[in-house]
Amino acid sequence: MRNTVLKMIAGCAVSTLLISSAYAQPNPVPASQTSPKTQKAYPALWLIKDADTRIYLFGTLHLMPANLDWNHGAVKAAFEASDALQLEIADMEAEGPAIVQLMQTKGQLPPEQKISDGLTETQKAALTAIIAQSGIPPQAVERMQPWLGSLVLSLGLFQKLGLDPKNGADKTLDGLARAANKPVGGFETGAEQIGFFASLNEEQQRAMLVSTIEEWDSSTKMLQDMVAAWSSGDLERLASMMNERLRSQPAIGKLLLTDRNEKWANWIAGRMAQPGTVFVAVGAGHLGGSDSVQAFLQKKGLRPTPVKTK
To answer: Do you know which Pfam families this protein is assigned to (predicted)?
Structure first.
């Protein structure tokens, strides 16, 4: 399941803000990483329109460095012209207490099991080192289901690299929409997204954890490449990095990508029957590849057209 770590960033929004809030990185990011030189970014944007309806489709990163300036030009104009914002989750923070409770129930192993069960001695040693780097008490990680442990440890690495859910594009858009009194809707709930991961079987969860362990040393470059692809608007490259192996796992790919993309495309198609302008922002990994949201829209006779952002 190569690139599983990357998939967690652009996949479910709940795997960033809520889990990172529950298991916050105890060590602050070094000052050199908190105030780097601002860089312009030109992420991809699409438009679906008819005579009286315009729907913008924007791919987000749920965790981002603080120095990326992306909310300008065509992206800013499209958002400001929109009557409403549609996200993966409408109000993630409001769901926080319930999601934390779900993580404490669905995310914990039975008393007789440990997260390291089934790992080789080499993998156990690597996991021990990763946990030590995370600053999270080892006994807490040992009690986690592999899916939750994998996410928590990965998010710890992302935060060390200066990627923060507070800087995520969807988080920023949500704040701007509420400040402007724009309605904010959601495709899913946080509980549903937790359910996606909790429904993985033991073998799938173990593969996810092993992938996290084995990719740990190479993740820094992969994350840098991912941010660069997003910043340049190359979502096909980004989606390939995130989802190549995920799509080769039929059950997981269907659960986390294909079914959700089709559901969101159905919503957009239905919304086209109403006048107005909507800004739709979902994880960037959903907007590239043969089973992307745009691909499902095209099957419905709708033609998303790229908007020039640079």
So the answer is: TraB_PrgY_gumN
| pTM of the full structure | 0.88
In a domain, 31, yes or no: no
Categorize the per-residue pLDDT at 23 as very low, low, confident or very high, splitting at 50, 70 and 90. low
One-letter identity of residue 222: M
Q: For residues 15 and 153, give the distance between their C-alpha atoms in angstroms, rounded to a whole number.
A: 11
Residue 19 maps to a domain: yes
| pLDDT over 80 (residue 247) | no
The CA distances from residue 24 to 34, 55, 284, in Å, are: 17, 35, 24
β strands within 16-106, DSSP E = 39-40, 45-49, 53-60, 68-69, 84-89
Q: What is the pLDDT of residues 59-84, one digit of tens each?
A: 998 888 889 999 999 999 999 999 99
Residue 234 forms part of a structural domain: yes
- pLDDT band at 282, cuts 50/70/90? very high
Q: How many domains does the chain have?
A: 1
CA distance linking residue 9 with residue 223, whole number of Å = 9
3-state SS assignment for residue 282: strand
Q: Which structural domain, as residue segments, surrounds residue 299?
A: 4-25+39-306
* Alpha-carbon gap, residue 230 to 41, rounded angstroms: 8
Strand order in the sheet with 305-306: 184-188, 84-89, 276-283, 53-60, 45-49, 305-306
What lies within 8 Å, CB to CB, of 199 at 6+ separation is 255
Per the prediction, the chain carries an average pLDDT of 85
Residues whose CB is less than 8 angstroms from the CB of residue 20 and which lie 6 or more positions away in sequence, other chains included: 63, 155, 159, 165
> Residue 183, Cα to own-chain centre: how many angstroms?
22
